[in-house]
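thought: fold this chain, then report.
action: predict
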Amino acid sequence: MSNIFSNKVNDTQAFTSLLPIFAFIKPYKLMVFYALLALLVTAGVNLSLGQGVKFVINNGFIAGSESQLKTAILALIVLITLLAVGTFSRFYLMSWLGERVSADIRKAVFNQVIKLHPSYFEENRSGEIMSRLTTDTSLLQSIIGSSFSMALRSVLMLIGGLIMLLVTNLGLTLWVVACVPFILIPILVYGRKVRVLAASSQNAIADIGTYAGEIIQNIKVVQSYTHEEQEKASFANEVENAFSVAKNRIKQRSLLIAIVIFLTFSAISVMLWVGGTDVLEGNMTGGELGAFVFYAIMVAMSVATISEVYGELQRAAGSATRLLELLNITSEIETPEDPKIIEKSHSTIIEFKDLDFYYPSRPSIAALQSINLKIPMGKVIALVGPSGAGKTTLFELLQRFYDPQSGHVLFNNININELDLDEVRQRMGMVPQHPVLFSSDVWHNIRYGNPSATDEEVINAAKLAHAHEFIEQLPEGYNSFLGEQGVRLSGGQKQRVALARAILKDPEVLLLDEATSALDAESEHHVQAALEKLMQNRTTLIIAHRLSTVVNADLILLMDKGQIIAQGTHAQLLNESRLYKRLCELQFESAIT
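observation:
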């Protein structure tokens, strides 16, 4: 598995890895300014409350003046009102910023992932990628919208509180300052443990999502083999593993917070004893002690908050690292900087020249070897051969999902590596043997071939694919939701919807991975008639499993073990190739006359 999901950062990198996230915050400088302004106001008001407490005690309680007490209480109420308004503004603005930045990061990551080369997804599980897209971005949202604000506020309160402590009583402040190193040491030690365990916890959660997604996606297979109990046990094991990791993380984090609180309030208790002695001896007033206690608690709570946020920032550092590495991945299949223009051709449209190809996940096994082939414009080419012969691989190279290790794929006499990637793919229409439908309605699934198509054009494409009749019988017709991967349709119905999508795209080159294989005899007859009309004046490559497709082809390519071992018409190959004759007997139901 790629190391993007197991990368660990040290303490120095923990925070520097978060710095690139600020690039996503930069467009919202005004909101950041208002949020920081609200933060400064609330911090200032909080610090002023200590002086309010001192004023109440000295001028109200000790002086015994009711009017002064009233004035002091009113002043406190004003400060508390300002604190409430400032806190609302700070919380709203920072939460808005966190949600906005999280949304922007999600879009950036998705935009990056959706254009990556297919071989990347062979090496990295889609479930883990989705976990980073959702779980990691949610954690960053929490950090930016809440934890980061808390950290800034706590730092301000810590600095301001220490200054006010010095102003109030220098001697007692030395007690507080002397205790700070003893509090920071466990923060650094246990914070590192929390970060490591947090990364493990994130990976365990990703494993749960990947496992559950695979089982749910293949639920019919699970139930058909009555593996429900086995899958329950396996999933429970995954969950318990994640819980075990999370339990260790929670234990370390709880221990960190407990130690900080114990040390902090122990220091305050000692300070109270020393300060109380000073009050009894007349060295300081009760109001000064009250204000000092207020600031000391403020400093203690700030340190406790920083220790808690530190662990969150450590977790966020790992998330940011994984997300940023996803954003920095360069796709191996890209449009050249200065793509060539595809000129109109009247002869050969596709050529495979001295082509060798190995899948990245199987680098020692040749998927295609020494392929040399010219496909004239407007012709129907049938690809036949046993499973694993390389038929589908030719389709994938033609659409440039992969680049060959040697040789070239030419389109209108131009290497497709030199052409605009989108233009190449827009000129081709693919109907796979196992069609892919999206969790949406019929309109969306057919219109995927041409998003700008009108309703009338969509319906006409459905009619040509012989899908209109069954679509009209669905509960809501073309507005019917088809379920995940079109689960509400039969195999033949899904294939006809996919065929309608290709018809709507109206491509120059039609790629059919036996598009009629899941149809009954009557539907196949109608769809085949529609295909024959669609294939007129259009270059068509068909991976064939039925005789009706083979006999009508202009050229048949017989493939085996990644090579083209024979080519010709149906009659020629029957006479010249024993493998072709045997395939006809096996795959084409002995209809070889």
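thought: worth noting. Confidence is low (pLDDT under 50) at residues 1-9.
final: tokens above.
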